[in-house]
């Protein structure tokens, strides 16, 4: 990466990581709800800004929209769990469009089996954890997103694994709604798993799309 590109674009990633870490360590402190609200949205919101600066074309625009919807969902969740879920569902649908536009040409039987397991297993496990049919409906979109990410041409161990981390983070949230008591694990792991997943997805997709841009 050139010095100019480093100055212009890397700070978006750095700022995103700083905001996400700050939220993780401060979410239970009395710094003010507005600041926490802004910090939470800034984590993935700055990833959307990074993607906007580093990509061009329709696929780049779809990635930016998916990240922006997730960032909006992060903040809206603090006000309404249902409204936040709707925004996340919209983000999953947007990401599915991106992944289906970029399907991997050749896949092995084991890769197809894992994708099918995500597609079917994510909503099933989500319902088992929460006991809520609406959570299962939401998780159908979540599972489809993870399966599509795994079958896409983007780096599987960044984008595909990032989507799986997103799933695990949501499972920890759903465990709070049912009878399974995981103690402090959800509080400790939900945000790091979710943000790490989004970071891996954003950088993996951007890396692939950047490799297709003509050299300047």
From TrEMBL:
Which InterPro entries does its entry note?
TMEM86B-like
Alphabetically list the UniProt keywords.
Membrane, Transmembrane, Transmembrane helix
Topology relative to the lipid bilayer, per the entry, is: Multi-pass membrane protein
The lineage's top-level taxon is Bacteria
Question: Where does it mainly reside?
Answer: membrane
Entry's transmembrane regions = 12-28, 34-52, 59-77, 83-101, 113-129, 135-152, 159-177, 189-209
Any coiled-coil regions, as ranges: none
A Pfam family found in this protein is YhhN
Q: Which PANTHER family match?
A: GH04784P
- Tell me what this protein is called: Lysoplasmalogenase
């Amino acid at each position: 990466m050139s010095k100019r590109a480093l100055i212009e674009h890397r700070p978006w990633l750095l700022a995103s990581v700083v905001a996400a870490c700050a939220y993780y360590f401060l979410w239970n402190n009395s710094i003010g709800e507005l600041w926490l609200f802004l910090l939470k949205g800034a984590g993935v919101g700055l990833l959307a800004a990074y993607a906007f600066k580093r990509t061009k074309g329709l696929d780049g625009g779809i990635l930016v929209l998916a990240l922006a919807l997730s960032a909006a969902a992060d903040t809206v969740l603090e006000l309404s769990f249902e409204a936040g879920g709707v925004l996340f569902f919209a983000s999953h649908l947007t990401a599915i469009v991106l992944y289906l536009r970029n399907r991997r040409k050749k896949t092995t039987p084991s890769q197809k089996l894992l994708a099918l397991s995500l597609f079917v297993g994510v909503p099933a496990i989500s319902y088992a954890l929460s006991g809520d049919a609406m959570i299962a409906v939401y998780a159908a979109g979540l599972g489809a997103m993870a399966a599509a990410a795994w079958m896409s041409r983007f780096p599987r161990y960044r984008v595909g694994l990032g989507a799986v981390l997103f799933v695990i983070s949501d499972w920890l949230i759903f465990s709070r709604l049912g009878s399974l008591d995981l103690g402090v694990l959800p509080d400790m792991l939900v945000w790091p798993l979710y943000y790490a997943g989004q970071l891996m997805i954003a950088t993996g997709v951007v890396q692939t799309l950047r490799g297709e841009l003509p050299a300047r």
